Amino acid sequence: MELWAIVEPGKPLQKIYQDDPKPTGTEVLVRVTHCGVCHSDLHLWKGEYDLGGGKKLNILERGVSLPRAPGHEVLGEVVAVGPEATGVAIGDKRVIFPWMGCGTCAVCLRGDENMCDKPHAIGVIHHGGFGSHVLLPHPRYLFDYGNVDPAVAVTFACSGITVYSAIRKLGDTPKDSVILLIGAGGVGFAALTMLHALGYPNVIMSDIAESKRAAALAAGAIGFVLSGPDMIAEVHRIAGGPPAAVIDLVNNGKTTQIGLDVLGRGGKLVLVGVGGGEIPLSTAGMIFKPRSIIGSATGSLHDLKAVIDLAKAGKLAPVPVNPMPKDQANEAMHRLEHGQVTGRIILTS
Ligand SMILES: [Zn+2]
Ligand SMILES: [Zn+2]
User: Fold this and answer.
1) Tens digit of each residue's pLDDT (9 = 90 or more) over 61-116
2) Ligand nearest to the CA of 336
3) What's the pLDDT score for residue 234?
């Protein structure tokens, strides 16, 4: 198989060749036809994450070895199965759940493999969709997407379940309350669509780019606010008071602080992005004005099933996608890094 792989952090991806894996036991081999390009792929390629306070997390400390083909939004066709793989047939076209765990601990057994302490994610720990094939340990990671456009269905594996799982953390937040979304990129619009599908009609979007205003309003946001310290008063004006919750898809410290400060008593701040940074936290302030800060990372196997079911039922407006041939993988990373993308880039092969 061929792989567009990170060989050296930050250097152009290289096309390398490895023997085709032969599935054994319950393993399944999938030929990749679609692979979404995500900001997490950029972090992996650059080789580190900003943890705030000058601290960095190196990908090698995260258990990543190089060369590695990135790509965790993967969809393709089953081309080989191990003798013990059941419920799967050659030719099946499936979306792959990439956030695999150890598969045996209590957390994994209840379907929350994305929360396992021993991550085995595709495109991170194992080769992902920037390769021609991916090898899965078990058919349970394969999901039938029915008649949904595969270029859209592939985005459910990361951006779809990430926003679904974040919205689930709003808990008992009343559906008719106002929700503020920080970040109007591809994931931001996926979040807006998902909030609407899940019955939250009153969403304000925010971004550093004024150019996102028209698209946000056209997509049904009740308001758009330019990011910055002045935005708090503007959000309160549009919402008629503090929003009930904020989903911060940027989470770079500055946005996180605004997200916390814009809330009123009982408000929830759900952190999703890995922009990096830190915030000072008044501990007594969290009592005088009680609020919750909740971290959210990707989603579970149940979340992927739920998102696909919403799409199959026609309840999820499709996110905008830009197909590109996989051999333009470096160009795709470059475009994403420089913010030249509206909607998701999907590498096709
Ligand atoms: Zn992702
Ligand atoms: Zn586990």
Assistant:
1) 778 899 999 999 999 999 999 999 999 999 999 999 999 999 999 999 999 999 99
2) 1
3) 98
**Range in 8-12, 65-69, 137-141, 340-344 the model is least confident about:** 340-344
Q: 203-207 and 179-182 as β-strands: parallel, antiparallel, unpaired?
A: parallel
What's the gap in Å between 227 CA and the centre of ligand 1? 23
Tell me the CA–centroid distance for residue 347 and ligand 2, in Å.
30
* C-alpha 162 to ligand 1 mean position (Å): 8
Which amino acid makes up residue 113? E
- The tally of CA atoms less than 13 A away on the side-chain side of residue 230 is 3
What is this structure's pTM?
0.94
* Neighbour-count burial of 305, counting CB atoms closer than 10 A to its CB (0-12 exposed, 13-18 middle, 19+ buried): middle
201: Cα within 13 Å, side-chain hemisphere = 1
Residue type for position 307? V
**In the chain, what are the domain boundaries?**
2-158+299-348, 163-295
Q: Using the Cα atoms of residue 229, residue 336, residue 323 and residue 17 in order, give the sign of their dihedral.
A: negative
For 151, list phi and psi in degrees, rounded to 5.
-70, -20
* 163-295 has CATH 3.90.850.10 classification: no
**What is the bridge-based pairing of β-strands 93-96 and 142-143?**
antiparallel
Q: How far is the CA of 3 from the centre of ligand 2 (A)?
A: 27
Output DSSP code: residue 210: G
What b-and-e string marks burial along 150-164, b requiring 16 or more CB atoms within 10 Å of the CB? bbbbbbbbbbbbbbb
Pseudo-torsion of CA 323, 326, 330, 335, nearest 10°? 0
Residue-level pLDDT at 82: 98
- 301, 281 in Cβ contact below 8 A? no
Structurally, at CATH architecture level, domain 2-158+299-348 sits in Alpha-Beta Complex (3.90)
Rounded to the nearest whole angstrom, what is the distance from the C-alpha of residue 69 to the centroid of ligand 2?
Answer: 23
Percentage of the chain with pLDDT > 70? 100
